[in-house]
């Protein structure tokens, strides 16, 4: 039985970000469900603004290649995103845009997002729970070849949504997260191109 490798990251690197807390919950839930989980921070992959002139002059920035390799090494992704003005935060959008430009890595033809199972979560202190931003994020990921699963977890009133241990206090949100993680694992196994020894 394949043990799926799932990469988890938040769309914000702000200290105390709700998306970071949401990613923490997802990381724990995925591990409980049997996945091998890797947690990263986009802050460890500093990138200039996406610019085709810069790409033509200097190539794909090394941090984008590193992030692309992380994605390629995993069977699925879970992205926990905040919502900025009803859309995708610029840090996350910029990272996705750069990684989507990768076509080769050494001698290999690669498309990091191609047929990759992806789950989306959002969090916001508003009643909208960051869901508006996920519509845009889902469209971007589908455009670069990812397979975004239907279930998602959106956490409203996020300043009150986590207990002192970082767990979700609302049962409905907990069920959403559990379902999202379970379906991600199932689809990641189905789409995995890894061959277990």
Automatic annotation (TrEMBL):
GO MF annotation terms: FMN binding; oxidoreductase activity
Family matches, as InterPro entries: Flavoprotein-like_sf, FMN_Rdtase-like_dom, NAD(P)H-dep_reductase
Gene3D superfamilies hit by this protein: 3.40.50.360
Residues covered by the NADPH-dependent FMN reductase-like domain: 4-158
Pfam families reported for this sequence: FMN_red
A GO cellular component entry from the record: cytosol
Highest taxon, organism lineage: Bacteria
Protein name: FMN reductase
Organism: Tianweitania populi
């Amino acid at each position: 039985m394949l043990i799926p490798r799932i990469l988890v990251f938040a769309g914000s690197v702000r200290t105390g970000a709700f998306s970071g807390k949401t990613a923490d919950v997802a990381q724990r839930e995925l591990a409980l469900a049997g996945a091998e989980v890797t947690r990263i921070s986009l802050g460890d992959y500093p990138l200039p603004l996406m610019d085709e002139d810069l790409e033509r002059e200097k190539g794909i920035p090394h941090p984008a290649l590193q992030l692309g390799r992380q994605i390629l090494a995993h069977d699925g992704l879970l992205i926990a995103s905040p919502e900025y003005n009803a859309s995708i935060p610029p840090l996350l959008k910029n990272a996705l845009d750069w990684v989507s430009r990768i076509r080769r890595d050494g001698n290999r033809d690669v498309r990091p997002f191609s047929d990759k199972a992806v789950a989306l979560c959002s969090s916001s202190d508003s009643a909208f729970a960051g869901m508006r931003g996920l519509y845009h994020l889902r469209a971007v990921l589908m455009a670069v070849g990812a397979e975004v699963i239907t279930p998602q977890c959106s956490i409203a009133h996020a300043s009150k949504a986590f207990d002192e241990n970082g767990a979700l206090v609302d049962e409905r949100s907990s069920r959403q997260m559990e379902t999202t993680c379970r379906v991600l694992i199932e689809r990641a196994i189905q789409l995995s191109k890894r061959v277990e020894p």
